[in-house]
Amino acid sequence: MTLQAVSPFGARRYNAWNEHVKERYGGRVQKVSIEAGFTCPNRDGRLAVGGCTFCNNDGFTPLYLERRQSITEQIEAGLDFLQRRYPETRRYIAYFQSYSNTYGEIERLRACYEEALRHPHIGGLAIGTRPDCLPAPVLDYLAELAQNHIIELEIGVESCNDAVLASVNRGHDFATSADAIRRAAARGLEVTAHLLLGLPGESRQSMLDGAARISALPIHALKLHQLQLVRGTALARQWQSDPATVPLPDELDCIELLADFIERLSPAILLQRVGSEVPPSMKLAPSWNLRLSELAPRVSAELERRGSWQGSCYEA
Ligand code: SF4
Fold first, then answer.
1. Among 2, 32, 173, 262, which is least packed by CB within 10 angstroms?
2. pLDDT digit string (tens) for 96-145?
């Protein structure tokens, strides 16, 4: 640990995305989720048909989304909901969240993204995708859009451990993620990586080693997710038939792991989230439930108890 006695990140004790956004844009930036009808090479047969064993996109799709609506209609519906819920929001960006939103012909990507950007209340895009769906022309196009819009490229890394990635049928390795992140960053794109902590086969040490591997990449932000078993997934079925093969941490273990991870993470990386929520109707396990609004303060409290903060155990 460094000799610095006071957290550089205040009471939160980590480099919080929300604070950064407020400073950069003068207030809250809210994502309006869009379901644009993309699929994923890990589902449509190009790589595999089963998808990642933890994946059921319904677990992460907001209820206000109606798939048959146009992108503009979805934005209108999302704004109607979000403007009432978060009246203090300063800007909105369209969030292409479900499946792999750069998996398609570039003309189709252009049509989808540009329809969203034509909406008068939309100031940018967040685009979630896999690292193997980012060929040079797509990255070039995104870099062009980023000249005039907020463009947040979200890449699913999920694990830094190739054996774990193979065991969950991810269909790519860590080197593919690292390469995509570097190619995106080289074009000036701001990348948010996603990591899913607690996948089967992962040890505490392998996840903590992941903090160093992620820190070595030119990422702008990180979204951490804790493993939750979503109904209808292969991993949920695996747990039901043999729970010992899918160990699930209890609440305290999860908070301690997050604190350990954050201590080892580069302080330069913004933490966009430290956990995720699955709608109760979709969630099979674990049985403990903490809303994100409860989990994040618990992680901060654990860091405070230790007298540590993001990067306090980071070695560049
Ligand atoms: S998690 Fe993403 S990459 Fe994996 S199957 Fe689901 S949509 Fe495809």
1. 2
2. 999 999 999 999 999 999 999 999 999 999 999 999 999 999 999 999 99
Name the band, by pLDDT with cuts 50, 70 and 90, for residue 66.
Answer: low
Q: Which ranges in the chain belong to alpha helices (H)?
A: 17-25, 71-85, 106-118, 136-145, 162-167, 174-186, 204-215, 234-241, 251-264, 292-306
Domain 10-306: what homologous superfamily?
A: Aldolase class I (3.20.20.70)
Q: Closest ligand 1 atom to the C-alpha of 54?
A: 1
Which residues sit with their C-beta closer than 6 Å to ligand 1? Answer: 40, 42-43, 51-52, 55, 57, 99-100, 130, 156
Band of residue 33 on the pLDDT scale cut at 50, 70, 90: very high
- The greatest distance separating any two alpha carbons of the chain, rounded to the nearest whole angstrom, comes to 56
How many other CB atoms are there within 10 angstroms of residue 152's CB atom? 23
Smallest Cα–Cα separation from 142: which of 157, 126, 158?
Answer: 126
Q: What are the structural domain ranges in the chain?
A: 10-306
